[in-house]
Specification:
Layout (H helix, E strand, L loop, with lengths): L5 H4 L6 H23 L1 H22 L6 H8 L8 H19 L7 H11 L18 E4 L5 E5 L7 H15 L5 H15 L6 H15 L10 H7 L1 H12 L10 H25 L6 H11 L6 H7 L5 H13 L3 E4 L6 E4 L4
Antiparallel strand pairs: 1-2, 3-4
Length: 349
């Protein structure tokens, strides 16, 4: 069976690149704590935005979706699911809320992981929520010609309960010795390689990522959607996961590609948090000025619906009027039309 000895393996990850990222994240962590203490009320808006974006993005990675209005209403518990996709979205919202409100009281052990998986499927009947896989599963990929091939063979079904017990036991024992960020990411990589459930492994891995980060004091994911950053870099995510799973069964895999990728995701989340907080908490910025600054500092194009998501306190009318004024003054460019309209800051010649 796989050897989950993180205490022997983690120091091999201390490359100059990874150490530099760890130092930066810990600096961000200290800065964020001060921000939160000073602006707790203003940051509640960011929490609600992140919940919607996290639920949408994590499910979107797995091909699960609904309309924007239905998604928001499901996350805010203003409606009930109408189909399978919406039931899975509602289940994700359920577990996300549990983690947000109780992360300090959720031990990392098999029983609690099973309970979270059960809640992920609480709105679906006849689904094996809360039990480990009953048949062997494989991770497939499709090549350029549309042909499917097996990318990875996870732990067989009969071995899964013991593997998960061993993984959780080693995680608990390694906490006193291993850097928490590295330990968390190594745990998630191994969880994905075990692939313990018939369905929902990817979404569970992202929920567990948030849980582990919160428990280690890195709570940026409450205010900025880490799942959205992963969804926007999905190709790189899968490549890093694949590179780190090579020779996993032989205990010879290299965690570095996945660790490097995930640390980069966390850094991006902190950067986004920093820029959003400055806008939300600046008393000298009008709502129109805030919209202007968001577009100016945004990399690439942005849509009106994205602006509305990021600023729930600003009305549709105000956003529309601001966009019209910025277009009139030649500060932004309009790309496309109708529901596909996007805006971008006009670069100086």
């Amino acid at each position: 069976m796989r050897n989950y000895n993180f205490r022997e393996k983690w120091q091999k990850l201390l490359t100059p690149e990874i150490v530099k990222k760890l130092i930066r994240i810990n600096e961000y962590k200290g800065e964020q704590r001060l921000f939160i203490e000073a602006h707790k009320d203003e940051l509640n808006e960011l929490v609600e935005i992140a919940k919607v974006q996290s639920t949408e993005a994590s499910n979107k990675i797995e091909g699960i979706s609904t309309t924007d209005d239905r998604l928001k209403n499901l996350v805010q518990e203003k409606t009930t699911p109408r189909n399978r996709d919406e039931s899975e979205i509602a289940g994700y919202r359920e577990v996300l809320n549990i983690i947000h409100e109780n992360y300090d009281y959720i031990p990392i052990n098999v029983n609690y992981i099973l309970q979270l998986h059960r809640d992920l499927y609480k709105f679906l009947e006849n689904v094996d929520g809360g039990i480990f896989k009953t048949t062997d599963n494989v991770i497939r990929e499709t090549d350029k010609d549309g042909k499917e091939k097996v990318r990875f063979r996870p732990v067989p079904a009969w071995e899964t309960p013991n593997s998960m017990e061993a993984l959780c036991k080693e995680f608990s024992e390694a906490k006193k010795e291993v850097d928490p960020l590295l330990l968390n990411i190594m745990f998630i990589l191994d969880f994905l390689c075990i692939h313990p459930f018939n369905d929902g492994n990817g979404r569970m891995s992202r929920l567990l990522t948030l849980l582990l980060l919160y428990q280690s004091g890195f709570i940026v994911g409450k205010y900025v959607s880490i799942e959205k950053i992963i969804e926007e870099s999905k190709k790189t995510y899968y490549e890093a996961l694949q590179d780190s799973s090579i020779k996993w069964h032989e205990n010879e895999n290299d965690y570095k590609p996945f660790v490097n990728y995930m640390l980069g995701v966390i850094i991006n989340a902190y950067k986004e948090f920093e820029s959003r907080v400055k806008l939300v908490t600046n008393p000298n910025l009008s709502k129109a000025d805030r919209i202007r600054e968001i577009i100016k500092n945004h990399i690439g194009t942005i849509t009106k619906s994205e602006l509305m998501e990021m600023n729930p306190d600003i009305s549709d009318t105000t956003i529309q009027r601001t966009l019209a004024d910025l277009l009139k003054r030649g500060e932004i460019e309009k790309i496309g039309g109708g529901r596909y309209t996007k805006y971008v800051w006009k670069m100086e010649d």
